[in-house]
Amino acid sequence: MILEGGSAIVTGGAGGFGEETVRRLIEAGMKVVIADLAVERGKALAEDLGDAAVFVETDVTDEESVGDAVAAATAMGPLRVAVIVHGGSAARARVVDRDGRTYGLARFRKTIDVFLSGTFNVLSQAAAAMVKNEPLESGQRGVVITTASIAGFEGAPGQTDYSAAKGGVIAMNLTAARDLAPVGVRVMSIAPGTFFTPAYGIEESEAQAKFGPGVPNPKRMGRAAEYASLALQIAENDYLNGEVIRIDGAQRFNVR
After folding, report:
1. Distance of CA 247 to the CA centre of its chain
2. pLDDT value of residue 111
3. What is residue 93's predicted lDDT score, i.e. its pLDDT?
4. Domain 7-247, what architecture?
5. Is 239 a catalytic residue?
């Protein structure tokens, strides 16, 4: 798909995977909406990138908020790419701990709302805008790239809510691709393994020493630039559709 001259939206675009993806899409000739709740970081990034980017404060769980971000993108050019890579907090607790306590239904629902319902919200509204595009010579109108996780396949203890949400993203992928096939919109998903981002709250060297040895090859945590490189390849390659791509160095979470 030809990216140059089109617009994109990246949820979670103010940092980590999102920031690297924003930069790659701009290098490919796109105008990009940085959709995030991190106002200070988002505005600073948009200012750094100049006319090629705009920041829109966006809550992925709110229809009107996502609609505003999509509208901002279409005002910059035909919306060709949406990358859904926003983060959020998850419970990190077992269903029932050793003292017999659960982490509660409300926390479970919140994780599902952010990671699964929020993903669908952005996917559906971005696709609705893409349908209005004139098709390219290839017949394509756009592509939506969601972000799953290897935890959606085999989660570690304490990840029930996160695994359920990301498993839902994985399950939704092929059906959404089939739904949107007649209108020339592709749907793909990336399932990262253990990647370093500022969300760890520690220095990269410390994180690499702790988590890197658990990755078979390369024996290190993934880098945000590697996610962004894959996202760009998916956007450009029309024959990638309806698939979930693991990017994890052959890592599988082991249960201890």
Report:
1. 13
2. 94
3. 86
4. 3-Layer(aba) Sandwich (3.40)
5. no
Q: What does the pLDDT read at residue 255?
A: 64
pLDDT, position 202: 85
Where along the chain do its domains lie?
A: 7-247
Which candidate in 103, 162, 200, 227 is catalytic? 162
Say how far apart CA 65 and CA 45 lie, in whole Å: 20
Tokens of 191: 């399932």
What the block records as the tokens of 121 is: 């919200």
pLDDT at position 3: 96
pLDDT at 103: 86
- Cα 163 to Cα 99: distance, rounded to the nearest angstrom: 23
H helix or E strand, kind and range, residue 219: none
pLDDT of residue 256: 61
Q: What is the pLDDT of residue 132?
A: 97
With a CB cutoff of 8 Å and minimum separation 6, the contacts of 116 are 164, 165, 166, 168, 169, 172
Exposure pattern of 218-239 as b/e (b: 16+ CB <10 Å)? eebbbbbebbbebbbebbeeee
- Which stretches of the chain drop beneath a pLDDT of 50? none
Cβ contact 143:188 at 8 Å = yes
Strands in the chain per DSSP E: 7-11, 31-36, 53-57, 79-84, 142-147, 185-192, 244-247
Whole-angstrom Cα Rg for the chain: 18
Handedness of CA 129, 131, 133, 135 (dihedral sign): positive
At position 208, the amino acid (one-letter code) is Q
Task: Give SS3 for 48.
Answer: helix
- Residue 238, both tokens: 């029309």
Q: Are 148 and 244 in contact (CB under 8 A)?
A: yes
